[in-house]
Design brief:
CATH topology of the largest domain: Aspartate Aminotransferase, domain 2
Structural class: alpha/beta
Number of domains: 2
Radius of gyration: 22 Å
Strand order of the largest sheet: 3-9-8-7-6-4-5
CATH architecture of the largest domain: 3-Layer(aba) Sandwich
Helix content: 40-55%
CATH superfamily of the largest domain: Type I PLP-dependent aspartate aminotransferase-like (Major domain)
């Protein structure tokens, strides 16, 4: 395969990188990326096979850890994040697991932000905990708390920004200063913003995690994940775990995700604009206690969002009024059940708007104490805005709010 003539340069805009970077062509000269549905590769000689297996010579060996289509996806995503390298995985959660298993060992300690995605919280607290890895949870918006949580055995900081579903932001540059002074790896989950809206590495982060299932695909078709960082980190710490344990992204899914990256910037711009319109409308509704969206001036970290993100993103949360938790849940469920246009599902990042009740879905397996600490109440609704017209989305929500 020959690399397409796309010279690496800081002059290319992110929209151009999303369409052109990482493309490699075979001798057939195909314009679109080729899909390589093969498990293994043929070598010209026993010596060539030995060199590939040993790593002395780069090249494809076995599609559990080397595949041309997957490699194109990795290269394009790395270019979008301004990174040296990326490693694709089967899902976002497998990317987080791979990162942890490649860095941590029994006796190590990690510091993570409160309000993490429910499965990430379960992974850290329950699964890693069984292997002697401890986790301390601190506020993502308080760098001093991260400093105070440090121990001699701390190896990793893990933060989602914005957080799911409370849309709390972490000051990435401030956390990077703390982590670098302590010699700790800073890992940022960039799922909600994607590189189209936020580039954590440029702000000092060491590693970026993606659930490519969400906005990178953008149409709810396939699962995928990725780890982005330096070439040495990916090759020496991440690849050995993926090669052995096999949380591998399929070539077909990689091909779908490559096509998703081509439209990522334009989708994120439109969906962010739609989300802002819906958020402003919700703020004016008397049944709504508060709207949580980084693009609103009412967000307590609006100034940070303006510095750190290009736009507010496509996800917002809003909390309904109610005298008791039971009344709040009833009001939230009524709004959700009254919708006719949006999809009741816990997934997000789709071109189709989705709605969910975090306390009983994405965070339903998290303890009530953890939910309370994160601010996830019974009246909270997460609304992931798609490409429908925002006026139609507001009319759909108005039906339940009026009840």
């Amino acid at each position: 395969m020959q690399d397409q003539d796309f010279p690496g340069s800081d002059d290319w805009a992110i929209e151009t990188i999303g369409v052109r970077a990482g493309t490699a062509r075979t001798g057939f000269g195909e314009h679109a990326e080729a899909m390589f549905l093969t498990s293994s590769y043929v070598f010209g000689s026993a010596a060539e096979a030995a060199d590939r297996f040993s790593g002395r010579v780069e090249g494809n060996v076995y599609s559990r850890f080397t595949n041309p289509t997957v490699a194109m996806f990795e290269q394009r995503l790395a270019a979008l994040e301004g990174a040296e390298a990326a490693l694709a995985t089967a899902s976002g959660m497998s990317a987080i697991l791979t990162c942890c298993m490649g860095v941590l060992k029994a006796g190590d300690h990690l510091v993570a932000s409160t309000g993490l995605f429910g499965s990430t919280n379960q992974l850290f607290s329950n699964i890693l905990g069984r292997f002697g890895i401890s986790t301390t949870y601190v506020s993502p918006s308080d760098p001093a708390a991260w400093q105070a949580a440090l121990r001699p055995e701390t190896r990793l900081f893990y933060v989602e920004t914005p957080s799911n579903p409370m849309m709390e932001l972490a000051d990435i540059a401030a956390l990077a200063a703390v982590s670098k002074a302590a010699g700790v790896l800073l890992v940022v989950d960039n799922c909600f913003c994607t590189p189209a809206l936020q580039q954590p590495l440029a702000l000092g982060a060491d590693v970026v995690i993606h659930s490519a299932t969400k906005y990178i695909d953008g149409q709810g078709r396939v699962l995928g994940g990725a780890i982005v960082g330096s070439k040495a980190f990916i090759k020496d710490q991440m690849l050995p775990f993926l090669r052995t344990a096999g949380p591998t992204l399929s070539p077909f899914n990689a091909w779908v995700l490559l096509k998703g990256l081509e439209t990522l910037s334009i989708r994120m711009e439109r969906q962010s604009a739609n989300a802002l319109a819906v958020a402003r409308w919700l703020e004016a509704q008397p049944q709504v206690a508060r709207v949580i969206y980084p693009g609103l001036e009412s967000h307590p970290q609006f100034a940070l969002a303006q510095r750190q993100q290009r736009l507010g993103g496509a996800v917002l949360s809003f909390e309904l009024k109610g005298a008791t938790p039971e009344e709040q849940r009833a009001n939230a469920w009524r709004v959700i059940d009254s919708t006719r246009l949006v999809s009741i599902t816990a997934n997000l990042g789709d071109t189709r708007t989705t709605i969910t009740h975090p306390a009983t879905t994405t965070h339903g397996r998290v303890s009530p104490e953890v939910r309370a600490a994160a601010g996830i109440t019974e009246g909270l609704i997460r609304f992931a805005v798609g490409l429908e017209h925002p006026d139609d989305l507001c009319r759909d929500l108005a039906r339940g709010l009026a009840g």
